[in-house]
Write a structure and sequence with these properties.
This protein has two domains: about 5-55 and about 305-395, Aspartate Aminotransferase, domain 1 (Alpha-Beta Complex); about 70-300, Type I PLP-dependent aspartate aminotransferase-like (Major domain) (Aspartate Aminotransferase, domain 2, 3-Layer(aba) Sandwich). Helix 3 packs antiparallel against helix 11, helix 4 (about 80-95) packs parallel to helix 11 and helix 12 (about 305-325) runs parallel beside helix 14. The chain is of the alpha/beta class. About 40% of the residues lie in helices and about 20% in strands. It has a seven-stranded mixed beta sheet with strand order 4-12-11-10-7-5-6, with helices on both faces. It has a four-stranded mixed beta sheet with strand order 1-2-3-15. Bound molecules: pyridoxal-5'-phosphate.
Length: about 400
């Protein structure tokens, strides 16, 4: 089918939740490249919103999906699943978690985390402790509870009244957090590096203070690492930058390289609150998803892709840093590893992104001023050089 026919069909039959999309349809991909229907190659520096960590058509992922699909796609968690047990073991052995539960998306993993924190206190005899503190500008998903947890009006307004008792505080302000805690607070939930709202990292000092406050007041600390986890920031998990550990950790996006999956990971003391019947999922953790995730996670670990993310990120920050003074349109370049945001001094992010697309570079934006860069973790220095050159060319043009 031609692109214009696909667009026509989409407009007629698909709900209009995405509006006018970027006018391209991809037929296949390899490594850093995506190919459209006419065979044009595009450099993928957005990874389908931080998902394709191994790039496209990585043989480890393709083989894991194909081989497992030939044997068994699904059987439900009514039965023991070898791939599920193996994947849970791999995550536990490489993270601060003791137990894992598999869901199908980031929002679902976060729902599982919210439920778990509330249940923990209910089972301890404190049913009134169900309030959760989250951060302004956060993003936690699109279900009703995760919209309420999200700290952005634009996602919440259409769905008010919201699920109650998610209280918001600004990021990197320990005093505001301390003041927001009350006798009903059960958890604090935050992204170590906020992604969707424009790449805002929590500071080291803030994270120390958050952990300390949680310990002092007996509050569960939940890190939403749906976007910043799994090597993206230059360490396997975002929390590893801060010398502290959360009690609950959620993962999704890159975990199965594009096969839908989310993971709820927790320390034993809180995981124990989930008893038979308390939580579940029809698809979550099926053999196919787990085999795909096993391939992705093993490759990230064995090929040291977190280190590559750290090196490529450092290279980008260093190189762009040198050009910053020459290009007053660049206000700030921030982030960690390969979770990068360029903030412009003018509302030109969408214009820049459009021009980058014309140069066959795929990136994303946040609001009017921020360009987001989330390449696959396999990106090379040559790829990064190419991107920097094109970004600077586009800025020259503007
Ligand atoms: C930090 C964070 N949490 C949760 C989500 C929601 O994940 P999903 O779209 O898989 O439900 C996202 C998605 O962008 C995210 O960035």
């Amino acid at each position: 089918m031609k692109l214009d026919e696909i667009i026509k069909k989409d407009k007629k039959y698909f709900m209009n939740t995405y509006g006018d999309r970027v006018p391209v349809c991809f037929s296949h991909g390899e490594g850093m490249l995506l190919y459209d229907l006419d065979g044009n190659a595009y450099h993928d520096f957005f990874s389908g919103i931080a998902v394709s960590a191994l790039g496209h058509s990585h043989p480890a992922l393709v083989d894991a999906i194909c081989e497992q699909a030939k044997k068994l796609v699904h059987c439900s968690s009514l039965y023991y699943i070898e791939q599920q047990a193996n994947l849970a073991e791999l995550i536990v052995n490489n993270s601060c978690a003791d137990k894992v539960f598999f869901a199908n998306s980031g929002a679902e993993a976060n729902e599982g985390a919210i439920k778990l924190a509330r249940l923990y206190f209910k089972k301890k005899g404190f049913p009134e402790r169900f309030e959760i503190i989250t951060l302004d500008k956060s993003f936690h998903g699109r279900t009703l509870a995760t919209i309420a947890a999200t700290g952005q009006d634009k996602y919440q307004k259409p769905y008010s009244p919201l699920t109650p008792k998610f209280n918001k505080v600004p990021i990197n302000d320990p005093k505001a957090l301390e003041e927001a805690i009350n006798e009903n607070t059960c958890a604090i939930m935050l992204e170590p590096i906020q992604g969707e709202s424009g790449v805002n990292p929590a500071t080291y000092e803030y994270m120390q203070a958050v952990r300390e406050l949680c310990d002092k007041k007996g509050i569960i600390l939940i890190f939403d690492e749906v976007q910043c986890g799994l090597g993206r920031t230059g360490k396997l998990f975002g929390y590893q930058h801060y010398g502290i550990e959360p009690d609950i950790l959620t993962l999704a996006k890159a975990i199965a390289g594009g096969f839908p999956m989310g993971a709820l990971c927790a320390k034993d003391f809180v995981a124990q609150a989930y008893e038979p019947g308390d939580h579940g999922s029809t698809f979550g953790g099926n053999p196919l998803a787990c085999n795909a995730a096993m391939a992705v996670l093993s490759t990230i670990i064995n090929d040291n892709l977190s280190e590559n993310a750290a090196r490529m990120g450092d290279f980008f920050f260093e190189t762009m840093g040198k050009f910053k003074d020459k290009y007053p349109l660049i206000k700030e370049v921030r982030g960690k590893g390969l979770m990068i945001g360029i903030e412009f001094s003018e509302p030109i992010a969408k214009q820049v992104n459009k021009k980058l697309f014309e140069h066959k570079y795929l990136l994303g934006t946040s609001g009017e001023n921020i360009l987001r860069i989330l390449p696959p973790l396999i990106v090379t220095k040559d790829d990064m050089d190419g991107l920097i050159k094109v970004v600077l060319d586009v800025l020259e043009d503007i």
